[in-house]
Amino acid sequence: MIVLLGVLVVILGFATRRNPLLVVGVAGIATGLLAKLSPQEILAAFGDGFASSRSVTIFVITLPVIGLLERNGLQEQARTLIGRLGKLTTGRFLALYLALRQLTAALGLTSIGGPAQSVRPMVAPMAEGAAERRHGPLPERVRERVRSYSASADTVGLFFGEDCFLAIGSILLITGFVNTTYHTHLEPLQLALWAIPTAVCAFLIHGFRLLRLDRSLDHDLAAPGGRSAAEGSRTAEEAK
Amino acid sequence: MIKAEWFYWLVGAVFLAMAAQMAVDRSNPKRLGSAAFWGLLGGCFFYSSWVVEKKAPAEPLGVAVLAMVCLGGFQLTGRGVPNTTTPEQRTATAARLGSKLFVPALTIPLVAVVCASAVKHWHIGGEPVLEEGSETILGLGFGAIAGLLVAMVVVRERRPSVPLHAGRSLLESMGWALLLPQLLAVLGSIFQVAGVGTQVGKITEQLLPDGQKYIAVAVYCVGMALFTIIMGNAFAAFPVMTAAIGWPVLIQQMHGDPPVVLAVGMLAGFCGTLVTPMAANFNLVPAALLELKDQYGPIKAQIPTAGALLVCNIAIISLFAF
């Protein structure tokens, strides 16, 4: 029972926002001591654990390729590509981005998107722009909601796309852990295939909610004043 | 036969080369700490080969891991000023190269999948070409090398130092966080040695009516989500819940299909990641980047999806694993 205190160390460490490396290191040592391992055995556990989990870190080998491509405008090209889809409503645009994000992540291209690389510079401005085109200037509360949904499309797309790619950290972690602990033999490909049903559910559920965002924006902004502001901006835009 | 260990040595060599570059990078205020961190990591990739084969003791490796924890944990690593192209140059090359830029990036997963499915069955003189059980890892390695060659042709770059520098900038921007998934896997195996999973399993066995497989599935999935909410990371929750319920109850006792149970179990954990502020890099960082007043805005947008998906995951295991 007492070894469960190791879990408590992790909870407290993360709850008090300590550096995660230190939290995990201290929790490992504490758990080892509580289980009455000797210091040598604890060091050996750290060493053995590191050696058998190296596969989690090998994606580093792809960084030179991605870095070289980014130097030569990979993100700019992605922006151009997404820019061609600019004439959509907020919900449809975000649902489309969700699909793109899931598909590229499923091909292993997880670093194409992300809050810093794509959401802030491209996705959120385009989602807001689509809402403004339809409704005119957005109240602060609505703007926050559109931005929050933009971030959610990216995160949900990444989480439930990447596991369909077999060389991703979580898949390799599953095979690494299970194969070493239970002396069995699991193939990453089998696990990646079984990530597909959940990926489809994620797309249907979150996609539906993103499409419904359009209707709730219509509803919220159709109130008197909202409508006229929308009309005003539309004529203003046409006048340009 | 091509061995997985050779590929680990290549990764280790890349870390060592990047560490050497960092050691002489005067634009990095913490260049010695950074070089020590990544150099140790590279060295550990080599030394681990002998630990895996039981030809060397694991204790020195444990000391090195704790040294990296201290270097990263006490903020002794930093990043230099990246030597890269200007936004104008990038827009110009993007306009010139167009969607050809995606080809090298797509080469990596393509080669990886081909190795894991086709090359896996190739034999030379009765021996498999790729080490058995490591086809995926080797596929990623060949994919990365092929992708790099294609990329150098596409962007007409001759100097190998350029991609190495570019990769190092990405490495420095990720920093010590790169070690975290591996360290969480280590923590999981220590929890395993210490019997944390067995303890959680004993508690659930007392609470769980015997032979109720749908309830057991629900407990595994909800437990994955809850542990992930607490720890902020499904990677840390996975070994605990799998040792507690996933393996002993769902797979051994009830004969569930391991790939379904484990793959979907991990995804149940991801439902927890969607709703926890502990997963700061996914939930709080976007709120900060988008300048939201409500830092929980993204989490609120994700809660209904996470709840519905958790139900889907329970249903998927219940339907397909037995």
From TrEMBL, chain A:
The chain crosses the membrane at residues 42-69, 155-179, 191-211. Pfam families: DUF969 (PF06149). Keywords: Membrane, Transmembrane, Transmembrane helix. It comes from the Bacteria. The keyword Transmembrane helix applies. This is Membrane protein.
Automatic annotation (TrEMBL), chain B:
The chain crosses the membrane at residues 6-24, 31-50, 62-81, 101-124, 136-155, 176-194, 214-247, 259-279, 299-321. Keywords: Membrane, Transmembrane, Transmembrane helix. It comes from the Bacteria. InterPro entries: DUF979. It holds the Pfam family DUF979. This is DUF979 domain-containing protein.
